[in-house]
Design a protein that fits this description.
With 106 residues, the chain is an alpha/beta fold. It contains four helices and five strands. The protein has one domain (3-101): 3-Layer(aba) Sandwich (Glutaredoxin).
């Protein structure tokens, strides 16, 4: 399962992480977020070499605000602690898998 993190864990888990991290900013009331969740979890299983994290923006909104997130679901890809890409909105499984595979050899 993707690890749920808080605003206070963000630096240690993401910006100080050497490697790739996919961070899903979501909320339980968001229909597309709920639809995206099982697809995100499949990526966790398929790609154990990549870090997958989730932040519930209902409970933890500080990082979402700092990053200027205005639409969810918003999955931000961080590489070596720096933002590399934003995936905004629902992604079907093949599209999500293609997005993850871009970061396998990088």
């Amino acid at each position: 399962m993707a690890k749920e993190i808080t605003d206070s864990q963000f630096a240690a888990e993401v910006t100080e992480h050497k490697g790739v991290a996919f961070v899903d900013f979501w909320a339980p009331w968001c229909g597309p977020c709920v639809m995206m969740s099982p697809i995100f979890e499949k990526m966790v299983q398929k790609f154990p070499q990549i870090k997958f994290l989730k932040i519930n923006t209902n409970e933890y909104s500080e990082q979402a605000g700092k990053l200027g997130i205005t639409s969810i679901p918003c999955i931000i890809v961080f590489k070596e602690g720096k933002e590399a890409e934003r995936l905004i909105g629902f992604r079907p499984e093949p599209a999500m898998e293609a997005a993850v595979k871009k970061y396998l050899s990088n």
